[in-house]
Every structure is written in C-alpha cells, then in structure tokens.
C-alpha cells in the first residue's frame, strides 16, 4: 500500500518560494438528477488537487498585490483588529465566560525571529491557550505523528507579506482558507497599564515592550512550545475562520478535527464494546499506516481521575511492545498535567532496568503533557476511543447529498424517510458513511433538533431479513454513522436510513433571540448555512433568497448589465398559454364526448357561438340551478344564442322518459377530481383538476405536472425520471406532508462510499412522498 502521505506528497511539495504552480485538474461536468458525475468514483486526491491549486492562485494574487502597494496583507474577511467582535464571538456571546484578548499584533511584532516551522511540526510543540478547543489541538497533536502531514496542510505562504493559505476538508470536499498573520495577545499596551503597573518597568515603555510583549507566551490562544515557531496559532486561526469565529471552535470531538485535517472518516467506540482486545492492540500498533487514535473519559464521572481530566480530549501518539509489556504513549494538548498512575513519571515501576529503556519507549520525564500507560490500564481508565480511517491515493470516493424531510415529531421511529441506491462495479474494500452536514459554522441557527442516524444495507431485491450490512452504533447524537467492509461485492444495493431526534431548544428559539442578534453577524451565519446546504442535489435556492452569494468566478471584466443579459439568455421560459387544448380525458372518454356533442345540437350551437365570439345570454337568475343540473327530478333547458326570449320549464311528468341535457362542461367537470394543495409546475394551475403526475426523482423539488401538460408537452420533463400517476383524492392526500406550522423536520444527509482500486460506485437517492408507506396489520398465519 502506498504511504499514507503519498497523496499529500503528490499534491503539495515542501514550500519553496517562487516555484512553479501545478496545473489545476479540470472538474467533470454536472448533471441535473441522480448523483452528480463528479461525485462518482472520485479519487480521494482529485478535489485536494483542485483546492490546493485554487488556494495557491489566491495567495499568489495577494502577494503580487501587496508588493505593488508596499503593504502587508490584512484579511478583510477575518480582521482580528478591525472586526474583533465578529472574529471572536458568535451570535450568542457570553462575554463573562468568553475570551477577552488584550491586543492584536503581527507575528513579526510578537517574535524576534519568527519561522513557520522549526524542525517540523511535533506533538511536543503544542500548548493550549485561553480557548476551550482541546479537541482540535488534540487532533493536531495526533496528526503530527504522521510525519510531514501538518507541513502540507498549509499549502502556500509568504511570511514577509503575512499571508497563509490552508486547506481543510468539510462535508464532501476540500475548502481553502486564506488568513493574515495578525494574532490575539494577552498583554495590553503600555498606555493601558495602571500607574503602579507602569512603575514595575520604571515607567520605561521601551523596556515593557521588549520584555512583556515579546515571545510565544504573550499569545492569547494556542502557541508552540518551540520559541519563534508560528505554525500552530496560525493553523488554529485558519480553523476558526473556517467555522466563522473563535467561539465556534469551543468544545467538540477530536475525530471531527482529524476529518477536517486529513479528509478521513472517524468513529467513536466505547472501550467496553471492544470484543477482542488483542485485535484492537494490533490496530494500535498499525497506527500511522491508515489509522489515527484519540481517547477520552466520560464527563459524567469525577472531574479528575488519577491526573486525567474528564470531558477532555487526549492524543494517542504510539503503541509499543517493550520487554514483554504493552505500552500506549499519550499526550495532553495542554502540554502539562499527566497521568499519575502506574508508569507515570517517577513512579515505582521505573526500576534501573526500565530507566535504561526510556529511549526505546520514546519517552522522557518532565511535565510536558506526554505520558505512558500500560495497555491494561489504558483499557480500564478510558471510556471512549476515537478511531480515524485515513484514505491514501488508491481510494475513490462517491457521494450524494439530499435535503430530507422527516415526519412530524412525535412520530414512529422507523425507516421510510429516505433511501439510497448504489451500484458497485467490482469487489473492493469499502467504507460506507451516512452523515449530516457539519453545522459548526451555523450552529446557532441549525434548528431545535439533534439528529441521530443509523442505516441498513440490502442487496437489491433481498428480503428485509437478509441485510448485507448495517451501521455500527456507538453514541447517540453524533453527526454520522458508518460501516466498514473488508469486501463489498460488485452489484446493486439499497440503503435504508432511520432518523431519530430530540429537542434541544425551544421551538421559538429563533424568534426569541432574533432581536438580540447582531444583524451583520447573522447575515454571514445564514450565508454559511445556505452554502453548506447547497451541496444537496435537491437544494432549493429560492428558500434562501439573498443569503446565497453569487459565484466569485461570475464577476470579471463585464459590467452588471452585460452579466444580467447573459444570465437571462440562459433561462428557457416555460410555455403557459391558456389557448392550448385540454387533453385531460382519456381516448375512450374523448370518443364518448364527441358522441354527446353530435347528439346535442343545442350544446354544439352554444359551443360554436362561444368559439366565434358571439354573446351568450346570462341566466335570468330566477332559477338557482346551473345549466344542465338536475334538481328534484327537474332538468333546466336553455335556448340557443339566437332565441329572443327564455321559456320557463313545465313540471315534468315522472312517467315521461324525456332525455336529460348535459353540457360538455358539466361532463368534463364531473369526470375530474380536484386535488387541493397541489400546483402544476408547467401551467401553474392550482389546484390541479383530474389526473396528474408526481416526479419521484430526488433532484426534483416537488415536481407536479397535470395530465393536460403531460400530453401537450411530453418532452418538458426528463424522460428518465419515474413519474407517479395520481388519480383519486385519497392518493393526493397521501402525498401531503402534513407538517405542523413551526416544526423543524428537515435535515441534510450525505452518503459517502469509499472503495479501493478500480471499483466505482454510482449512487441514487429517494425521498418519502407523503404517507404512501404506512402501517398495515399483518395477516395471521
């Protein structure tokens, strides 16, 4: 197997100023339904290459511009100094419990001889600052154990200009993030000191600046323990920008951050659920080949256990077998506070013989946050292990995202809201992942529900008792569920997902908080939400109005008028003329209608007169019945348009078998069912009358078409899409979602399937249509 770093090595070479930029691969074209083609069989390197090349171009453009203007780069999108509130805090800042930096300085002002890397990135460099992002720093510490990986996450930079370009993985693709070198510090300006504080420096501002405000320890957030090294606080800043602000990265699981840094897949496993501890030990020994690990202790227990803190993320650095014993080397991202049990620094287990083996164990004494645990103590102490699977250049990714509407809560916890189909071209190892969007960048407006997922996979056509695989359950309310297969056989499959939820906010949380939110910040959060949700193949842009930004590549050397003219020229207007004939009846009904017409000269005369534009006299209003209506055994008869007077009907003898006159309009009306609440997408008729069709393709947003449009414009909709014929009122009622006002039943789900070698996966998605699938009583045997 190629090295785990092979795909990064192939994309990003070590930074050399002025080196040639690699060409950007051309993305494949998109389609309008089913899975987008560029999401099928995509090499795990392809989007990384695109994002890297894009990031390099952006950084190069900034460098060129700054040099021309003789200035350092200041990021207008994330200006720590000029836009402090927005960069630090979210929509709900709790100022008393949130960071409050004293000042903002450039890297060149903080360090005397700043360097991005000094002898490369190392886990021993990492020290957490005044921010609750231990989970992120723990992930960084874990990733540093894969030599050279962190070096390549920053794909381009110019330290003199102060511009840095990073790439992170989010949802289903790589995202580039550009930042400047301004950082928050904890030491205030000299002018902000009290008189007695200034006296400590003998009222010497120059001495104060040189001693108190220089060095890594002045940084407010994370820092490298190697003096003058800058990669860690800049990486942390880039991740904060990716998620909107520093407050957004408080609290989390390091598995999430490992995914963002590597593009891998992470799962949480309770230690007590490990079946064979020897097999798991082999996994730990193979760390860095295709897996990374972290560990934590459940926060429901005491705050501190033998020196280890609960609800705090730790990095697994290494597993070793030395002198017949199994050890796990672990690190606290704080850079201090270690395990105080057996094999802790200075414990009685360290005999003279074992002290000689310290180099073999890659360990040294000191309160640096790194410590050793024997494997048996590791299993007894930790409650959760986080495993991250990393994919090298041999792996391909296929993915598809859908906006899913579940049933109104409370409801049955069952399958039936969404399914995915996928086909595999050849046998392959595989990882199947069903996940929600990463909502960290719009958490405060992400709805009032937490969601939990699980799924079952069947071979196409198999019975419900013959499942092929199912997701592994670990903890509720995680972002995704996954299944790992040593061999996914070639063939066609169906995946059924089951959704669970719980309320975590009041239903009116948005309205309640709206007045207190900063509108400018809210606009940017909504934009992030809209951009994230737009990954879904059935995304409706109209629902997000002005929150969606126009594509950056749209704007160039053309003015708005020219751009708008081009955009309008691309839109094809739908024909909505009312003069088109109505073919709503079937062929058989139409022939009957012609017979009625030929036998009813009165009606035919009226119709002809109407077509020619002749005036048809109105009813005199004395009789309440409409033409052709039957009331109490009496039929109303009308003259043609040429009659001068209107005759009153005489009471009909019940014994007489006189013919009842029925107009074409009445026959047409009585043959149709009115489907309230449904609109034809083509002619805009609402409600639809008579038979109609609903498109079942998930890319179509509630596409309904009446039978009239279906017959008169047969090529208006994609013929490869399946259509459901709706004829009765009962059928249409089953399609109604019946959502209660204010309920939040939507969630965006993505299916990602990783395969190896030549295997390619094609994915399709299907959504629930109303209540067509419902409970039925089983027949007794």
From TrEMBL:
Q: Where is this region: Disordered?
A: 572-657
Q: Which UniProt keywords apply?
A: Hydrolase, Metal-binding, Protease, Thiol protease, Zinc, Zinc-finger
Tell me the GO molecular function terms.
calcium-dependent cysteine-type endopeptidase activity; zinc ion binding
- Give every Calpain catalytic domain span: 106-391
Q: Where is the composition biased (Basic and acidic residues)?
A: 591-600, 608-627, 640-657
In this chain, composition skew of type Polar residues spans: 574-584
Presence of keyword Thylakoid: no
Protein family: Belongs to the peptidase C2 family.
Q: Which PANTHER family match?
A: CALPAIN (PTHR10183), CALPAIN-5 (PTHR10183:SF379)
Q: What is this protein called?
A: Calpain catalytic domain-containing protein
